[in-house]
């Protein structure tokens, strides 16, 4: 006598467990974010440092121009006609 065919066994997939999908997606995103931060952190830090140095040089140049303008104004007023 033949046995009736067994019904196909249903293997639960992630679609039945949305919280599992969310956790897996979160773990993947976290890993990708860590990779991006690790790869670009040094470059970002260097860019910020360079920008800071450029701003500092602009401020120094601005102060030097003001000092030269003040010097020229005071010496011009002290020169006899």
The total count of strands amounts to 0
Q: What is the count of DSSP helices, taking H or I runs of 4+ residues?
A: 1
Please compute the radius of gyration using only Cα atoms: 35 Å
In terms of per-residue confidence, which ranges show pLDDT below 50 for 5 or more consecutive residues? none
From the N-terminal CA to the C-terminal CA, the straight-line distance is 130 Å
Give the amount of beta strand, in percent.
under 5%
Overall outline: rod-shaped
Main sheet overview? none
Based on helices, strands and strand pairing, what is the structural class? Answer: mainly alpha
Strand and helix order: H
Which percent range fits the helix content? over 70%
Mean pLDDT: 83
Give an overview of the whole structure.
The protein has 81 residues and is an all-alpha fold. It is rod-shaped, with a radius of gyration of 35 Å. The chain has a domain at 35-81. It starts with 17 loop residues before the first helix and ends with a helix. The chain has 1 helix and no strands. It has one helix spanning 18-78.
């Amino acid at each position: 006598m033949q046995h009736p065919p067994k019904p196909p066994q249903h293997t639960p997939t992630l679609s039945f467990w949305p919280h599992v999908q969310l956790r897996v997606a979160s773990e993947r995103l976290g890993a990708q974010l860590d990779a991006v931060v690790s790869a670009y952190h040094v470059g970002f830090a260097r860019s910020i440092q360079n920008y800071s140095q450029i701003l500092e040089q602009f401020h120094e140049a601005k102060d030097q121009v003001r000092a030269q303008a003040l010097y020229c104004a005071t010496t011009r007023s002290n020169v006899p006609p």
